[in-house]
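User: Please predict structures.

Assistant: First:
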Amino acid sequence: MARSAVARKRNIECRTKVKTGCATCRTRKIKCDENKPFCQKCVNTGRSCDGYESPFRFVTNSAHGSDLKSDVTLQPEIATEDIDLLNHCFSTKTLFDVKLACDEEARQVLQASLTDPPIRHAVLSLRALREDLETSGDGPASPAQLTPSYHYGLQQYSMALGALASNLSSPSSNGLKSALLCCQILISIEQVRKNYAAMAQHIVHGLSIMHQYRARPGFVTANKLVPTQHDQLPSLDIFIIKLFAAPCKFAEPLVTTDVSGTMLPACLVSSHQQPRDLRTIAPDMRTELTRIAASTLEFLEKVSQVKSVGVALQLLSEKAALLNSLESWFINLELVQTKIGYPSTEPISVSFLRFFHLILKIVLLGALDSSPDLYTELRTEHDRLQSVANNVGERVKTYITCSGTSSGQGKRSTVR
């Protein structure tokens, strides 16, 4: 009997530990049933399942040898495939094989997620919601049809927002960096959820943080240039511009598509509207706005590196020219609208162009300027951006409803 007890004890001691369970069960040191996305043991006992190992893998740089003490201080190296995966999740445009130029942004986010809970929760949320979009299409027709992945994504989203609010209660350089990196993911999450009103709110809040805490040098008076207040804050504005400037490429749809790259479902296209007119006019509008966006990215890079008042004054002239180009573009858009003569509402693709135009204008207005008068002007543009976003969000909901998601016709018909 004693020998049998010793043998059982030896077997228990030699048994290989299982490392694939959820984080909650592993902390409690109990066997996990490994149901995804929630462990049923946690659910049945009323606990919050903290999920499984991140879908993004990290590799440690072994170039410094095998000294365990030195490995502790090393920054883990982010795997290239994980950077590609997060880059792919950033925008719904990638559903149609569009390539984003956000590798560096993805690397920064993944690096920070190793030690920053809000960012880690946000990354897990984006991944779960993106997987749900790719498998379920435009989404369920009712809350009762929400998938476990969608529920898990919302849970992680809520945890990210809670942790982020805690960090921002007493902002520091690290807290601001966390907020801006997290904001990138939250913008992407709301795009996946087609909640453009909330997406606009994240954009406005993130850009406000950049401006309030002076992510770049700027003038406080006519000839007084002040340096960056917080070094190396993430450039959220550049990330947003990249998302909107990325080309729209879609598979041949069953509904009308204008060449600006956005699908126009039948329920949003009037019988009086002539796609031929859109094809001959709208491409120039999209192309010109993208050109201004590219010039804006170059301008922001120069602003980040400015050191002298003389160079900054030259950049103010460049800023004025870009704002004039945006104003000319907007006037031309109105002329195009008049020429085409939409009988009721404009195509949703044009609304997205308006949204992009306002983002560029807000970014440019805030560059190199910290004057008190600026806040009034920015508030007006923020309100306009929110109004356009609200309109787009409501029309997208109408699109999803009339395209018949329950029959599968709306699958992957993302209007971006």
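Second:
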Amino acid sequence: MSYQVGLDLGSAGTTVATGRGVVTRNQRRHNAPAREVAQLLEDLAARHGEAPSRVAMTHPLAWPHEHLEQVRQDLIEQGRADVLFVPAPHAAAMAFDDTAQLAEHSTVAVFDFGATAADITLLCKQGVLLLAGRPERVDIGGFDLDDLVVEHVVAKIGTHSPELVRSCVEAKELLGSYPEVRIPVITDDEAREVRLSRLEFEAIIRPAVELVVDALERVVRSAGLCEPDVILLVGGSARIPLVVKEIAARLHIPAMRAPDGAAATGAYLEAKQLEPEPAETPAVSLPQPREEDKPKHRLPTTPFIAAGLLAVVLGGGWAAHEAMNRPKVEITSVVLAPPGIAVLPRV
């Protein structure tokens, strides 16, 4: 059975969307995009028993035309000339519109604060999603916020290790839900911990967050009268409480968090929409058999059966002769008394 696939090749991981749901591989990619796509599709074909009938992948809106053409050529060399390209903000807005059912001429600002950059795009629904205003990209992402936290903790304890870096990244993610996180620090001499509060974390990252929200304000102002009805928050860094508070305080526009894998889901919807409908198989009606074509069931003729049939014929003729010679009797109505009540015998 044919199926469609949507791919979002992010910097922190690759998200795959099919009709069965969304799966994210949380790892940085080291392959070229075309090779990454080919490997993913090979895995899907092995899992489902056949290759997908339609594939769509997202790309940053800021990619130049030359870069897109190079990726397309690389995909052709990998045997995937049929892959569709969908801009990432459009894909995220399509997934949001599929559930929210935006009214015609609604405007949505896609605030994609990902691992390596923040992309802000304003889209207006006019049958399809069209650009409104001037999109902007800021080269600040979640990896930069990780580095700020690591620098702060290292300055406190005076030591650095790969384990400490991983702990700092986990602490940054936990501070979205907890007011304080304790980071373990293990050295040759002792094992101790460093406390990092949410207020401390927000003070560390506030300058970077303000730069990103400044860009969002510029994009909204560039749209003129097409002020967004909603701001769609996409990407892991967009979930940081300080980001949401800063947007609400400055723009006074409702902000909604996109579901996980929104861009990949939108790409899947685009692939599904462009899949041709299966041709209907015409029904074939068999003609009813004619009367003369119907098989006639004949009884086998035996001496006993022949004698029986002769007796029936002779008997029928004699009964008819008696009925014709019988005197006619006038039939009158007879009124019968109503039946009585039946009483069952006692046992």
